Records
---
Amino acid sequence: MTTTTPMTSSQLTGTDQLSGAARTPSATTGQTSRRRIRKDVLRSRIAAWTAVVVIGCFGLLPVYWLLATALSTPESTFQFPPKLIPTDLTLSNFTALAENDQLIKYLVNSMIVATITAVLSVVVATYMGYSFSKFRYRGRRSLMHMVLASQMFPQALLLVTLYAVFSSFGLLNTYTALVLSFTTFTMPLCVWMLKGIFDTIPDALLEAASIDGASRWRTLHSIVAPLAAPGMIAAGLFAFVRGWNDFIFAVTLADKEKQTLPPGLVSTYIGEFQTAWPELMAASLVVSVPVVVAFMFLQRYLVGGMTAGSVK
Amino acid sequence: MSTAAPPRKVAPPRERTGGRLSNGAFALLLTAPGLALFAAIIIYPLISALFTGFFKQDLRLPGREFVGLENFTYWLDGDFLTILKQTLIFTVGATIVPFVIGFALALALNTGLKGSGFMRGLFLFPWVIPGVVVSFLWMWIFNANYGVLNGVLMKAGLIEDSVSWLGQPGTAMLAVIITKTWASFPWMMVMLLAGLQTVPKELHEAASMDGAGSIRRFFNVTWPQVRGVASIVLLLEFIWNFQHFDTIYVLTGGGPAGSTETFATAVYQTAFKGFDIGRATALGGLWMLLLLVLVVVYLRITERKGDAR
């Protein structure tokens, strides 16, 4: 960053002076301003590429290092200074993962918990989002604000009391505790996403259905839901990813039996004295795969989903 | 994975009864399952947290004893200001730095470089991968003995001895901010790029024809158009960072010597390492008051934008 900013600004000032010259009456012919624009374009291209390259180094070199370490042998990892281009490539870190039963268990737990979280969040949020989108009633605004605000309350604090609540109901170390705690942040997200999707379905369609004699339940289940299905799947994928990625709730509310992959990786690899970095990096890649795949499907909803409940 | 199937298309026999409810009652009925869940897992725990702050209570044991404001004064007379200061340093740093980087990248990609769509996707990677993975990766990069950062800096002759980035108070906060920056600048970039793309190209061309230089075009054409998105993005990121937990917890756990202790790690450690749930929720209550101010500001802004029709 530090290298781009001064460069760009000096270029910008240069352009500014030039435009000052261009503003003198004799120079404002079409030709000069066209040439000036071409120069402008060239300058902004250079500035743009500089920014992309510098930020690219910051953004992507760590990713390269993640890959390189995952493919290295343990011996070469504990060399200093590190080899920037690994020569002894190996897949053994990945095969070691497949043979680790405890990790497979974490993986299965993650799958189960994230899937149930997604389904529960979407079902509940569909009704709520539909209500917010298509009906006008007293208290609606306050409810919507409550849902929105709930996303912003401190999770660490919520966790402390959730722990006490789950403990008194004997729910610690269960899938239920994980699903419910994940729902605290996936449900608001889904409500806002789905409200946005229902907003795009024209009211006229609902009126037509009502004139044709369909009840309100039937309208929702047989007419609106199929139309909103792609959006519901997207919301479900977002919820799945958020549940899959969670660390703080999973590490606290579940033990080794029911824990999900993110905290599972910590307990498996982060040793007090020595960490198995190549295996940890390989495992990290494996955890990231479902998320990356989900986001490839979600490209279209990306901005909408990321801003769900914030801006449209 | 597409388990999020739409609700079954059942047409139960009692379908007709739906027609007897007024529209308002029907709408409220739709929100009922959600509200029940909300009440059980968010509202009740948060309210009970506010009360617990006035009690002396061990997380592992039943029973508690009313102690009035003792838990609050414990913090206010003690570490509160230090924790607030460190939380603010983290929050401001981890909001401003990714904003600047994300904005620069958005501006660059918006000039229509070849392959900017592809690059946008590529740059999203740090944001998409799980937060724990981000923490592991940077923990490895910052590693004092074998880390690549030390290796590169030494090769470049910038440092002579290995630096223990996460292990000393002077650099730990910086390292944590860099890590969080890496994970969140792509989100800033996507949001700002979406904002920038609403600026009509013709406006730029017209301004350019009229002799406006790049700086002037930025402040007179671009900025007014993205100001709305920029303020929302900054505020949201600020709110999120103010309660961020994962990165700090995995990288430093609040240490070394408390130098990266924020509200989130302090509340967590007090409750789950010290088992003192009264003190933890007291600090949490103070923290929530501060957050509440931010959330109200945020709701006001979205309200004004007419989003919550």
---
Amino acid sequence: MSALAEILFGGLFQGSLYAMMAVGLALVWTTIGVFNFSHGVFMMLGAYIAWQLVELGLPAAVAFPVAVVVMAGVGWILQASVVRPLIGRPNIVLVVVITTLAAGSLIENGALTIWGPRSKQIPALIDGNAIIGGVGVSLHQIAIIVITPLILAALWMFLNRTRLGLALRAVAQNEDASHLVGLNVTALYGLAFAIAASLAGLAGIFMGGYRFMSPVMGSDPLLKALIVVVFGGISSISGPIFAAYLIGFFEAACSYYFGLYWTPALLFGVLILTLMVRPEGIFASRSRGLA
Amino acid sequence: MTDTTSTMAPIRTAAAIPIAPGRTPWKHEAVGFVLGFAVLALLPLVFGDTYARHILIMAFIYAIVASNWDLSLGYGGVFNFGHLALFGIGVYAYSLLTKLAGLDPWIALFASGIVATLAAILVTIPILRLKGIYIILVTFGFAQLVMQVILSQSDITGGTQGIVRIPGLYWLDHNMVRDAKFAYFYIALALLVASTLFLRVFVRSRAGASIVALRDNEEYAISRGVSIVRQRMLTLAASAFFTGVAGAFYAAYQRNASIDVFGMSLATIILSMVLLGGTSTIYGAIIASFVLTIFAEWMADFGAWRPMITAVLIIGVMLAYPSGLAGMIKAAWGVVAGRIKRPA
């Protein structure tokens, strides 16, 4: 019983974090058609900004939202500086990989210079522990499990029910037609990046609440988010969300039964197998667009 | 293959490719090739100290890896992000072959190249039918998979500890340790010459032309009888051999192996060399390897600012010159050559 509870809990928790990361990657990919390799750095930066604000004396309830808003600005700036000038170039996918990697390295080393290598921790959302189904869990992790689906549902509502969200989906579906009907495509590109960056920043704040932060903390979640988007299909939003939880459960079960060492190898094995059978991801339809 | 002349003389078919406008005649290239490497071969006369030679040896190794990556990335148009894994496989193949199997270092050096080639063929299987971003993700996954396997087999590979005291290369009775890296310099240079020669002959051959045709117009190339499966496998296998040998040489030179070679930071540096140099040139990647390696050493005093300055430099060049350093040199050469040809 406790084994099942542990896997269930671990899967829900990891899946939440992966979903927050993967949705941002998928959003940027569907709208702009580029892959943002500085996404993991966004996560780190969000956590550090929140830490700095708490350190300056702000209460967590103020500091966290402010950090998320700042991250939206960072996402916008990054998009305007290293992605937008390249749009229209024939080898944009490849060049953006290198410019976002370089920008990520710039931010990572900047964080290292400003905040130093010493590990830091930000306050948990809720302090305390509980025992559920024979497994000891922290209330912080419970909070993440509850909050993440709400945020993702809000994002879904935004993309499907608001004019701005529909405009974003329109750009994803057909950029030229969006231009024709008078949408400001450039601004929408910035918006996609801003949303992705703030979601990653929020994931970073969540992570910084239960684990020590370091300038390289985003690289492993980025890797997992990559697996998730491949597994779930990159051209949608719902696919990566389901896949994130599935991968979370798979990871929790693997580390329970096979040990921590084999889990990444098994994950990548599953990834490669998935791509050989269904290259567009297991949940994806064959059309490009946000759903 | 109905054309009898092409089957009779398969090597000479390279000459059958018409000279495209702007394509350098091979005689000009051969002169430049010999002159360029002759200059490199004379460098130890100028730089006598171990440190300068060490920088050059590292630049040669990076140049081999980067230029071979350019074959699959630039010419093949395959977004192969697992190239560094082939380098890492070379490092570990050499280490294990010499240390555990007790193989002769020189044989192990070439065996490592073959092991890397086999690995490249293996990784091609899942990406045969994939495109663009999915190739990036699978090859990236492959690199991580190799790293995880090495980590999990820690009783053979040393896991995170790595392997130390790997046998180095030897040359008759020559003392490789006390010659201020003289012998290693020339071995590295010889490997770079062999690799570059191979790459240039390959991309100028009929097979090279068909790979570029696949990259530029896949449907048309397939309709003209070019096999995407065979050519993609050929491209990756061809780019793997010298990459594996470079990895083996790196292990022999450093005398130790660690999983750092699979890390993102090395991959980013070498990828920047490929893109900074300009894709589909081979020479661009080599030039960029020298520029970036020497630049990084020159800025050694800047400490934490060094990777930041390098990142800004990479972004700046990518934004200003999407065709990279090779594009810059070509543009500059165009201006100079135009002035010479048009006397006032």
